[in-house]
Amino acid sequence: MGQSVAISALQTGHVGLNVTDIERSLPFYVEVFGFEVLSEGKDEGRRWAFLGREGRLLVTLWQQSRSGFAASSAGLHHLSFQVEAIDEVRAVEQVLRGLDASFQYDGVVPHGEGASSGGIFFSDPDGIRLEVYAPTGADTAPAPAGAAPTCGFF
């Protein structure tokens, strides 16, 4: 192995997602996550949106895909968002049910057997796999994958 770089503080900046139809994806992300549109490109052939909260960029949408997400291809496995409390996870679940979103599991599930953390696993309009979870409060439901991580194989 090579030499690693000494970085004192590293965190994820933002996540860029390719979408097929920004007119469909943008309202989904705004409604589900409460994102504000920080900026947007509307030129034909160059559609994009920068989404965030409290002025901080979190997700970018790029309309440059011809087909939906394929889990069989290398790349993004899923995008996960942490909230403070399990009640917030359940509130997002209700919004998603109103949008007739596709869920991997029925309702809130723990991250694994005996884990207190957990949440909901669902897909956006292009089939991109998403998760909203809380660090505690999900241990009242059975783990759908037993000892395997719930967020790993879906």
Can you walk through the features of this model?
By secondary structure, the chain is an alpha/beta fold. It folds into two domains: 12-65, 2,3-Dihydroxybiphenyl 1,2-Dioxygenase, domain 1; 78-154, 2,3-Dihydroxybiphenyl 1,2-Dioxygenase, domain 1 (Roll), CATH 3.10.180. It contains two helices and eight strands; from the N terminus they run βαββββαβββ. The strands form two sheets. The protein has a four-stranded mixed β-sheet with strand order 1-4-3-2, with helices on one face. The radius of gyration is 17 Å and the shape is globular. Residues 11-135 form the VOC domain. This is Glyoxalase. Keywords: Metal-binding. GO terms for molecular function: lactoylglutathione lyase activity; metal ion binding.
Morphology: globular
User: Within the largest sheet, what's the order of strands?
Assistant: 1-4-3-2
Low-confidence stretches: none
Sheet having the most strands = 4 strands, mixed
Percent of residues in helices = 10-25%
Mean pLDDT: 94
Structural class: alpha/beta
Distance between the termini: 32 Å
Total count of strands: 8
| Annotated CATH architecture of the largest domain | Roll
Write down the CATH topology of the largest domain. Answer: 2,3-Dihydroxybiphenyl 1,2-Dioxygenase, domain 1
Contiguous helical run count: 2
N-to-C order of helices and strands:
EHEEEEHEEE
CATH class of the largest domain: Alpha Beta
CATH H level, superfamily name of the largest domain? 2,3-Dihydroxybiphenyl 1,2-Dioxygenase, domain 1
Total of domains: 2
What does the radius of gyration come to? Answer: 17 Å
Question: Percent of residues in beta strands?
Answer: 25-35%
